[in-house]
UniProtKB/TrEMBL annotation:
Gene Ontology terms: biological process: defense response to virus; maintenance of CRISPR repeat elements
Alphabetical list of InterPro entries matching this protein: CRISPR-assoc_prot_Cas5 (IPR021124), CRISPR-assoc_prot_Cas5_N (IPR013422), CRISPR-assoc_prot_CasD (IPR010147)
Taxonomic superkingdom: Bacteria
Organism, scientific name: Streptomyces pratensis (strain ATCC 33331 / IAF-45CD)
Single Gene Ontology MF annotation: RNA binding
Keyword Metal-binding: no
Keyword field: Antiviral defense, Plasmid
Signal sequence, start to end: none
Protein name: CRISPR-associated protein Cas5 family
Amino acid sequence: MSVLSLRLAGPLQSWGASGRFTRRTTESAPTKSAVIGLLAAAAGIERGDDTRLEPLAALRFGVRIDQPGSRVRDFQTAHHSVSGKSMPLSERFYLADAVFVAAVEGDTTLLSDLHAALRNPVYPPFLGRRSCPPAQPVDLGLHDGAASLMDVLGEVPWQASSWYRRQHGSRTDIELTVLREACGSEAEFADTLRDQPISYAAEHRRHALRSIVSNTVRVPGPSAGRLPRHDPFDALQEENV
């Protein structure tokens, strides 16, 4: 078993799980359906190829919220490509300036292939919608060996933007929220989200419910590892007291 980690950062992201018709909402963190879709696209898996999708959908998924961002709303207009008639005005919701670390756990061979695909994707990655490209490389590395999903989400360095890190400059560690798939009896008390992919076929997309639990991890903050402040006049001040 291995774990593949990804950095999901960009000016805009949108992770829909329940939007319909003219109102397209976003979740507060990346959905499993969207991240598995990103990996499938990188590997060149076509939308209707449910056989190749199945092992990806079986991967265990978790996401860490490194920088929550802010929710923004946009209005969009469209015209029918044939008739030219105006389509209904639609609302689109996004997360601005958000940063996440996502991870999938599963078979080492499969994840090695997906890791290689991320470095040379067949189709380019995007953050929930094609209009939301990543601002940085998505690949954060493949973690082999005994490391579990939660181990990796607790070990990957904080990925927040520099301006966001400066707001927490005096802290030696940061507590971050992790949303992961429930295990065993945890499912009885877990939240659910319909983002377990079954098929991405354009004519009939299908998703099942997935159980999610929330944890926290602590990672080194901006001031971790800094040398203590040294001012030679401190010694003179102590003598004068």
